[in-house]
Design goal:
Number of strands: 7
Radius of gyration: 23 Å
Order of helices and strands: HHEEEHHHEEEHE
Length: 210
């Protein structure tokens, strides 16, 4: 989404909040503190009151926008800049694009990047999920390197790549940087990319998947 579209769709703070409420709550505000749906809007404020725990809250609670004094419109523009940048964006460039100081721009970029790797912010695979691995690096030359096993994959110095696919849904793929694929590594990858409480895993018979 480009800047012009953001300014057109979200010209005011109220428009930004209405959009976040629709995305997060789908029209049914839920208290972020006790998870109760017994809430009511606070008159003349972009906040809600929880009739269960007697607290007030806004849609930004427990998000990267919480306790920020920067207009949400600028947050939306910052998100577009960071997500669309192919080679990253510096704090100085971000500060110029948003007309904010360098420290504010750095703070925005750090919070956005942290949210991008936060498991609570990611969409996890669920349902029937298939998982398999392959090894990348080309076939060993005839004769091989000294001490290099002449194998197509496991047990060589090739890089293992693990793929997970939700049937009818998204695909996740990750290179195992340590070049060592183990049951512990596979377990960590599953918990990183799959909602284990809502999924059935399909794998081959390699013992590492047990």
């Amino acid at each position: 989404m480009d800047f012009a579209t953001i300014y057109k769709l979200f010209p005011t703070e109220g428009d930004c909040i209405a959009y976040l409420e629709q995305v997060r709550w789908h029209g049914k505000p839920t208290c972020p503190y006790c998870q109760s749906a017994r809430t009511s809007p606070v008159p003349d404020e972009n906040r809600h009151h929880c009739n269960n725990c007697n607290t007030t809250f806004s849609v930004t609670v427990a998000t990267i926008f919480h306790r920020t004094h920067l207009p949400l419109q600028k947050w939306f523009v910052a998100l577009a800049i960071v997500l669309n940048a192919k080679k990253g964006v510096s704090a100085l460039q971000l500060s110029r694009d948003l007309a904010v100081d360098k420290n504010t721009a750095w703070y925005l970029a750090m919070r956005i990047r942290k949210a991008m790797v936060d498991s609570a912010q990611r969409n996890l695979l669920e349902g029937v999920v298939e998982m398999d691995e392959t090894y990348i690096g080309g076939k060993p030359r005839k004769g091989g390197n000294k001490g290099e096993p002449r194998k197509p994959g496991r047990g060589t110095s090739k890089s293992p790549v693990v793929g997970l696919i939700e049937r009818g849904g998204d695909v996740k793929c990750e290179v195992v940087q340590s070049r060592k694929l183990s049951a512990r590594t596979l377990n960590a990858l599953v918990r990183k990319h799959v909602d284990t409480g809502k999924s059935v895993m399909i794998t081959d018979e390699w013992s590492g998947y047990m």
